[in-house]
User: Fold these one by one.
Assistant:
Number 1:
Amino acid sequence: MLINPRPSEVPAAAHDRVYRTLRSRIMYGDIAPGQAMTLRSIGEEFEVSMTPAREAARRLVAEGALSMTSSGRVSTPELSSERIEELAALRALIEVELASRALPRAHMALIERLQMINTSIAEQIARQDAVGYIRTNLEFHRTLYLRAQAPAMLAMAEQVWLQLGPTMRALYGRLRRKELPHFHRLIVASLKAGDEPGLRLAVRSDVTQGLKMLAR
Amino acid sequence: MLINPRPSEVPAAAHDRVYRTLRSRIMYGDIAPGQAMTLRSIGEEFEVSMTPAREAARRLVAEGALSMTSSGRVSTPELSSERIEELAALRALIEVELASRALPRAHMALIERLQMINTSIAEQIARQDAVGYIRTNLEFHRTLYLRAQAPAMLAMAEQVWLQLGPTMRALYGRLRRKELPHFHRLIVASLKAGDEPGLRLAVRSDVTQGLKMLAR
DNA sequence: ATGTGTGTTTTGTGATCACAAAGCGAATTT
DNA sequence: AAATTCGCTTTGTGATCACAAAACACACAT
């Protein structure tokens, strides 16, 4: 009997492809806050009928990536400053815990990988590429948190990122960064030193800094 | 022009009714872990077609209330002990923060209401009603956290409850309680005294206690 | 100008159907 | 006896359609 040589390349249902593409766009700030979309237009873009388009949209609504009016229309959310503050606090709570759990398992290979990602972030900044910056920045965090071996917590953190996606675009479009966020260096340094309190503070600061200015 | 006298009583779409009913069942431990269900049987029970049944199921999958096999079949999840530990830690993180934010706004009316709920919990314990116990226990927590005025955080907390629902049933079926969890009394006492560190400890303990024993 | 009414168009909802794949059970083979 | 094969049944997926309600635009009246 033949074993499927690539079990990860399962057919990929249509609704899942739509979901994943939209999710990436939202999480990485490809879509501005308040952007409306119809189920038919989604289906048209992905060349599927309304059924899978509706499923993908509904899934994103359930995750807070899209908001829905009482009549069923979906759009990217426009977050109030109170909600931004809440989501920033959630990021701080969850990601500090994830970093703390990753610390004892963080070996040199991981730290080098994080430094690589940091240089990549610097490139995106130089290129003024907002979407690239957001994606690479989140990749830095995800790479660290994966070491925590805590999938449920990581999923929660990603859900918060998703909710903040369109808003992050508005933020990073405003504060034109010139250099690598220096808390990333602090995170790497704390990891090297095995300094847990320092790591917790660095992560909390990194996560909070940008969003604080946006919430006012 | 007439204003709708009950704006909250909008027609209620079929898929939403299915979703809400299933969500309650899962969150309050009405369904055991590992219980499978088909889309057609859901539709049959609620006298709707497969379309709204599928939407409700998909929404619950997105929230982690149901798990899905690669072939699209859904069932209540059977959580590993690692995942239970993670979810317990998330409860601790988020709910301690919610309680802390509720504290400065907690007036006498709220405290009295919490005490009422506590006597209600004692009744459910005397009646050996597992589902009633879980529901009333969560009502205690929700009542407190509503005062925090932090809807995004509360939604996250409820999502964790939802994921733990079927497992909670298995837990409370095992440890036949005899009396009101005494951390509930500690929570109320800390609220009365305005003692924030005490409140944080009491909430963390209450949230962690039961799940710790289940995770081994 | 502003608000109002009306007809048209757009849009989400849910039912139904065809299809393919997964699950399942019994009979058969090793 | 255990494993396998084959056929039937169950099940999820996605397309299509009818329908009702919401959104919209335009004309009209104030």
Number 2:
Amino acid sequence: MADLARELGVSMTTVSRALSDHFSIGPEMKLKVQKLAKKYNYQPNRMASALRKGQSKLLGIIVPYLEGRFFPKVVRGMETAASRAGYNVVICQSNEDLTHERRNIESLLSAQVAGILVSVSRTTDDFRHFEKVRGRGLPLVFFDRMMPGDALNAVVLDDREGGYLATRHLLAQGGRRVAHFGGLQQLTIYRNRYQGYRDALAEAGLPVEEELTYFGDNTEEAGAEAMRRWLALPNPPDAVFAAGDYAALGAMQEAERQGLVVPTDMAVGGFSNETFTPIAKPSITTVDQRCDEMGQAAVRLLLELIDAQAQGLDFASRQLVLRPELIIRESSQRLGRLSPTPEPLADAAVQ
Amino acid sequence: MADLARELGVSMTTVSRALSDHFSIGPEMKLKVQKLAKKYNYQPNRMASALRKGQSKLLGIIVPYLEGRFFPKVVRGMETAASRAGYNVVICQSNEDLTHERRNIESLLSAQVAGILVSVSRTTDDFRHFEKVRGRGLPLVFFDRMMPGDALNAVVLDDREGGYLATRHLLAQGGRRVAHFGGLQQLTIYRNRYQGYRDALAEAGLPVEEELTYFGDNTEEAGAEAMRRWLALPNPPDAVFAAGDYAALGAMQEAERQGLVVPTDMAVGGFSNETFTPIAKPSITTVDQRCDEMGQAAVRLLLELIDAQAQGLDFASRQLVLRPELIIRESSQRLGRLSPTPEPLADAAVQ
DNA sequence: GTTGTTTTCACAAACGATTGTGTAAAGCGC
DNA sequence: GCGCTTTACACAATCGTTTGTGAAAACAAC
């Protein structure tokens, strides 16, 4: 920067202000400076800038894990939106573990990130580390999995709607007794998918039968175990909506092992649109989570928070709810081909 | 820091040196300082430190994409190893695009990272942006996909060995005419897998027949297309080694569509151990790439480079080669169960 | 010509850590 | 107790930007 200032015969102040479009610099001076900066390919030192301004061009991201389809896609959306705004993202994985999550927060704080995007770990039942972030005045946006409370910013999927759509579809395909494999109920997302299931049953005038619900980890083994229990019942189900694709796969395979035909004897629906769901045989009906949109929306929200804060405005906290998309495949289709999406999709912002 | 210094009645110099274990500070003073720092939960400002030292605690990572199984796993390994050493990782995706890759490099340079880990994009045929990094004296480690040349640091898989193991296995299972679906040959990894295929054929005294090789993108469609061509031959193959799992899946499904039975009529082997390979029916034999090890090894190598450079030593460039693991599943097993790994695995460092 | 207003820019002090140099104090042998 | 080395610490400059303040120049109004 000093070189630029010398060459132009002005002070570093002027150069700095010209580059950041400060009002006190004349338009033709701005042009001269910017031209020369381009010529020398001058890149301001972000460390110095961050030190002085107390804020870096980094966004922190905490995800439970990076395997599977969901989080990589979300992260990709985030990276896209962030780099468009001149930010970089630093990624931490909590491994679904509270201790890791706390360490990640510390790590991001000490990396002086400008804001944090977090999807809460499954085992987290203590949220003081998040309060600490907000205490420091650092913008915080939850995505997909949020902490309880409503004075917070988040971008989530309408999981209830997803559960509702999937269950309604199974009923429409002739399901008389629809079972539900639910995820661990301490996570809001799984509670909401369960709620959607119940809403669809209620709408059809059916009761929620406890023996037709099973809660466990979203794994093939757990899904198979659930199916074994159901098939041992005197009056077993003829369809199952699983809150996760792995469980759906496990349940489906177990049903086939026991001689049932999917979808004729047992219709199956999952959740997440994992990579393997179109590949499995039969291909698995599932709910898509709009990953890319979620990532981009979360970053946009965070950047708005950062801006608002820089200008000293205060910002009403906001939750953005994305509508999921039901993807109908072979594992649930008993009644010939249907149009894949019965309703037009639109994002809804609530609050 | 000033608070600590005041409370202890010493200078900031002493506090700083005590915390960084400088020799000129007495042991009991070090202890006092460290205890107080812990008590106040003091976190040094990384921006200030980075500015002064000209080096941050950030490692840059460039991957072509984050979908699939491979890169997320590698990144996880990197994140683990980095955070153990007090570093954070910032991730960029090149989307297999040279322009993106260049921009990513710029972005990481301006983020003042301490070093860069990169897996080269498929379309990259110009490597000056990497030279620029080395020109700035910034440590650079390639993983999985490297640029040509040998005066560089890299951690790669022994792809030739993987191709060799898979092909030899298909031959051992009674394959008489083994076809090969190869990836785009401008990527070293795909050239090497092809070489392994040829080596195994040569060892068995078989010729490489041009009509039995097909090169294309690693997608289901391309795999299916290759299989269609092969099955139209007067003398079609009875086994296929694909350099990617998606192509293997597509080829397998196409063979089944045409009435063949896998593995009896057509044995199939893939590469990458994607998530769907154990789930597919039949489950797909494939080659595992030791993702986690690769990530950790790459970070370790990079940290060594950074250390060496900080001490002004020069560091002979080094390539680390990891041995892949053949995972035998249903799609290739004609001769009953075999032990899954015929040989003990050991990592080999060459050069 | 004087005063007032606006525009344009320079000075210098931050931001928070690191580090070369200088200098007391302590330890030792004689 | 002297000179010597070693140990333990403080001073102050430095990294490259940003920004509050103030001052010079340009311009308009009277």
